[in-house]
């Protein structure tokens, strides 16, 4: 039979039997058991609540509901009892500062360990903001959060390959020491690595650098690099099939996506995907139009790209991996003059852009809510006297914007960003990439622990490099 009647409390649901078999381990085992219940027209599931089962069905049907506290508890019950991976993933995707403690505690009660760990990591990243609330947690839950490593802000600037015997001491990946409000060196870039017009992203707590050019001829660097902070080493892997530079690299669900870019003076719409499990690149659906250096972000584990038509409109597309297609989500009609970037917080996409051509340093912002489908103009101008803010990364309810003169932390509040902490800027010229990494707890400072501002370095940064960093093929 196509449909199966399922009774939960006093409610009866008519559900596609194949849908339940594919997505719920409980029903799959039941239908394959040969027990009498699996032949009944109506199956009575006890111990769950109807509203939680309704949320489960909505997720299985492709919806992405934003849940209140009671719905979260009942959904966790269903995810744990019925073993619904899709529901667990949805709950992980909607963790935020309002529900993280509830998610964490409830997941611990029902043994939903993937959600438990994800919520604990989120709490660890916001520990200082949540320190009064976390005291309400049982001791063992608090101890687990405190055992985890928080995300750290990391930045790398624009660099070309260096001479092997005389490596530029500024060719470094740096992290933000928030206690000292300054940037410090995490690791050197490999000698042959280029970040000039490269693709840079983080996936599974590893830093990936793809492509980049070697000199003014825009010769594409052949080797790509991966940095693992847990091992403090670099490895190499093969580059995309299509040579490209000035493209966007995004890490999503164990894959890297090289989006658009340029090659031989031609802007491209092609997109390639690198599968970490097979170590292979393959082409996926092209973008709707050619684009270079597109702004991309992820919200609730969904991947979005911002296609900018100068002085006219900004189209935001979502890539749906399961269907291998690009879907137009929204269009913003707004005059702008220079550049743009996009970050996400909860179910909001924030688009920052330069203002009218007579004031290209003025940074204006709008945000698009994925749930309501509405655009909202942000009040004020997001700028400072030391430069426009076009490099940003979100952690919890904070967003850090970086330029060579100043690093500024904002608190994201409803319809505005509120300045919180000003720190030293990242003292590099040219483009920069900012991201998050969980750096291991170390008994000694990272390599090159000297302060960046003023270019103070420890001794080993000021001597000739006798050998390049250890490189090996990525697994």
What does it look like?
The protein is α+β, with helices and mostly antiparallel strands and 475 residues long. It has three domains: 1-94, Potassium Channel Kv1.1, Chain A, CATH 3.30.710; 98-148, no CATH class; 152-462, Kelch-type beta propeller (Neuraminidase). It contains nine helices and 31 strands. Strand 7 (198-203) and strand 8 form a beta hairpin. It is globular. Mean pLDDT is 86; it is low at 384-388 and 448-475.
Features:
3 domains; alpha+beta; four-stranded antiparallel beta sheet; disordered C terminus; 36% strand; 9 helices; Potassium Channel Kv1.1, Chain A; 475 residues
Question: Could you write a compact summary of the structure shown?
Answer:
With 475 residues, this protein is of the alpha+beta class. The chain contains 9 helices and 31 strands.
* Biggest pleated sheet: 4 strands, antiparallel
> Under the CATH scheme, which class of the largest domain?
Mainly Beta
Strand order in space, largest sheet: 6-5-4-31
Distance between the termini: 46 Å
Number of strands: 31
Q: What is the overall shape?
A: globular
CATH fold-level label of the largest domain: Neuraminidase
* Percent strand: 35-45%
Structural class: alpha+beta
Poorly predicted spans: 384-388, 448-475
């Amino acid at each position: 039979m196509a449909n199966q009647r399922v009774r939960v409390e006093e409610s009866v649901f008519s559900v596609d039997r194949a849908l339940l078999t594919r997505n719920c381990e409980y029903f799959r085992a039941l239908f394959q058991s040969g027990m009498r219940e699996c032949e009944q027209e109506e199956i009575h599931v006890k111990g769950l609540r109807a509203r939680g089962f309704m949320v489960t069905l909505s997720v299985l049907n492709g919806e992405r509901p934003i849940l209140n506290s009671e719905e979260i508890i009942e959904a966790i019950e269903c995810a744990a009892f019925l073993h619904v991976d899709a529901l667990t993933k949805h709950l992980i995707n909607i963790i935020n500062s309002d529900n993280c403690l509830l998610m964490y505690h409830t997941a611990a009660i029902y043994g939903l360990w993937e959600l438990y760990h994800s919520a604990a990591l989120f709490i660890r990243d916001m520990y200082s903001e949540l320190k009064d609330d976390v005291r309400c947690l049982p001791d063992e839950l608090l101890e687990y959060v405190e055992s985890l490593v928080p995300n750290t802000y990391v930045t790398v600037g624009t660099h070309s390959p260096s001479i092997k015997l005389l490596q530029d001491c500024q060719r470094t990946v740096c992290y933000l020491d928030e206690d000292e409000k300054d940037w410090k060196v995490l690791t050197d870039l490999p000698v042959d690595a280029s970040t000039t017009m490269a693709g840079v992203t983080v996936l599974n707590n590893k830093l990936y650098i793809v492509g980049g050019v070697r000199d003014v001829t825009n010769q594409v660097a052949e080797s790509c690099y991966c940095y693992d902070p847990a091992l403090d080493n670099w490895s190499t892997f093969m580059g995309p099939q299509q040579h490209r530079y000035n493209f966007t690299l995004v890490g999503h669900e164990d894959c890297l996506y090289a989006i658009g870019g340029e090659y031989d003076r031609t802007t491209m719409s092609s997109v390639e995907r690198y599968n970490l499990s097979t170590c292979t690149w393959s082409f996926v659906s092209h973008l709707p139009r050619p684009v270079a250096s597109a702004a991309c972000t992820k919200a609730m584990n969904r991947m979005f790209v911002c296609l900018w038509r100068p002085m006219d409109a900004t189209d935001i597309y979502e890539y749906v991996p399961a269907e291998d297609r690009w879907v137009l989500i929204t269009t913003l009609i707004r005059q702008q003059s220079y550049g743009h970037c996009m970050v996400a917080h909860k179910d909001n996409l924030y688009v920052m852009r330069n203002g009218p051509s007579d004031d290209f340093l003025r940074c204006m912002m709008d945000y698009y809510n994925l749930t309501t489908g509405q655009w909202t103009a942000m009040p004020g101008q997001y700028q400072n006297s030391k430069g426009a803010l076009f490099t940003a990364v979100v952690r919890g309810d904070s967003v850090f914007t970086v330029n060579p003169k100043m690093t500024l932390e904002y608190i994201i509040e409803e319809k505005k960003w509120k300045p919180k902490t000003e720190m030293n800027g990242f003292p590099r010229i040219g483009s920069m990439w900012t991201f998050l990494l969980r750096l291991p707890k170390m008994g000694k400072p990272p390599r090159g622990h000297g302060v960046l501002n003023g270019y103070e370095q420890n001794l080993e940064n000021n001597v000739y490099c006798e050998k390049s960093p250890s490189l090996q093929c990525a697994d």
